[in-house]
Amino acid sequence: MSYVGRQIGRYRILEQLGQGGMSVVYKGLDTALEREVAVKVLHPHLAGKEESRRRLQREARAVAKLHHPNILEVFDFAGLDSPE
Fold first, then answer.
1. Cα–Cα dist 72/4, whole Å
2. CA of residue 56 relative to chain centroid, distance
3. Is the pLDDT of residue 82 over 80?
């Protein structure tokens, strides 16, 4: 399932940038701050699995602690109880 053209919270999904075994990364627009962002979404077959959601949460927390010009900054995370 593609999220292109959909709204996820305050993020409008513009196009798919890439994908891996666990998730898809989209170019999005933060409609509140009017800036382009990357939005990472678990594959549907993993989104319902608590361990996959916990793994993505651990990744978001770890990356949020990093500061380097070649690493995207984490601004937001939907959390384990998010419906999407």
1. 21
2. 9
3. no
pLDDT tens-digit map of 18-37: 999 999 999 999 999 999 99
- Do 39 and 13 contact (CB within 8 A), yes or no? yes
- Confidence band (pLDDT; 50, 70, 90) for 81? low
**Eight-state DSSP code of residue 71:** S
The number of beta carbons lying within 10 Å of the beta carbon of residue 80 is: 10
At position 33, the amino acid (one-letter code) is: L
d(Cα 64, Cα 32) in Å, to the nearest integer?
Answer: 20
Any idea what DSSP says for residue 30?
Answer: E
CA-CA distances (angstroms) from residue 9 to 12, 63, 66, 68, 77? 8, 21, 25, 27, 11
Of 65, 56, 64, nearest in space to 23 by CA: 56
